[in-house]
Write a structure and sequence with these properties.
alpha+beta; Arc Repressor Mutant, subunit A; six-stranded antiparallel sheet; two-stranded antiparallel ribbon; 8 strands; about 50% helix; elongated
Length: about 250
């Protein structure tokens, strides 16, 4: 059974502390913030200096991160680690349901499609990776918003506004907030003819790391209604396997 390594947790906490304080810190400040002995703190700081992740000023003897961590982070981020996982999940969803499957994240007041596999039906929902979908008129968007506190939900919705995309689009903020609360309560979202007439979708969302991510099945509204039980079962199975349990409590 894997175990949590305290030294690793403390090392990461040091970088989080510098990110929060945005200034040079002494050993005693770090030790106090981490709740550990100064000798233990100094050992960690010295190790990070030795490995090139921190520098220590000659005069004040305080510590601050070098650019090494930034350079490594940029190299890692250049190949989004979410992509291979998302591609695998949407492929599984298509194999199980034959409907178009999507993965999305919030980006600039909309849902950015991170991964997509088209369904196997002749009449199917079509989108593209990198495409943007309205937050308020998609199952992906409502599922993602359901993970957030109300003030953040309002901020995201204010970026693009609640536009009347189809006659069924919700343009009333209070109604939208109530619906998002219901999504949070039941654990999944749905839309029918709200973003595209004739198209429906179901979605689930959770955290991967600290980022809200959602998966959706989309297709003809009538077909989704007929298969609601099976499609939700497939999505909820994914939700139980993929998302971080530690964050769970907190459209296509």
């Amino acid at each position: 059974m894997p175990a949590i390594v305290p030294a690793c947790v403390r090392t990461l906490a040091i970088f989080e502390l510098f990110a929060q304080e945005k200034e040079e810190l002494s050993n005693s400040q770090v030790a106090r913030a981490l709740g550990i002995a100064e000798t233990s703190s100094l050992d960690l700081l010295y190790t990070l200096v030795n490995q090139g992740y921190l520098i220590r000023t000659p005069s004040t003897r305080r510590f601050y991160p070098t650019r090494k961590f930034l350079v490594l982070s940029k190299k890692i981020a250049s190949n989004d680690p979410l992509t291979p996982l998302a591609n695998e999940i949407v492929e599984q969803l298509v194999q199980r349901t034959a409907e178009t499957a999507l993965c999305g994240r919030i980006e600039k007041g909309a849902v950015e499609v991170v991964a997509l596999r088209e369904g196997k039906h002749e009449l199917r929902y079509i989108q593209r990776v990198g495409g943007r979908i309205a937050l308020h008129a998609s199952a992906l968007g409502k599922a993602l918003l359901s993970l957030l506190p109300e003030d953040e939900i309002r901020e995201h919705l204010a970026v693009k506004g609640l536009k009347q995309i189809t006659p069924n689009s919700c343009v009333d903020l209070d109604k939208m907030l109530f619906e998002i609360q219901e999504v949070s309560r039941r654990g999944w979202s749905s839309t029918f003819d709200e973003g595209v007439e004739g198209v429906g979708a179901f979605a689930v969302a959770g955290f991967i790391g600290s980022e809200p991510i959602a998966f959706s099945l989309a297709g003809l509204s009538d077909r989704l209604r007929r298969n609601e039980k099976d499609y939700l079962e497939a999505l909820l199975d994914i939700k139980g396997k993929v998302f971080d349990e530690s964050n769970d409590d907190e459209s296509a």
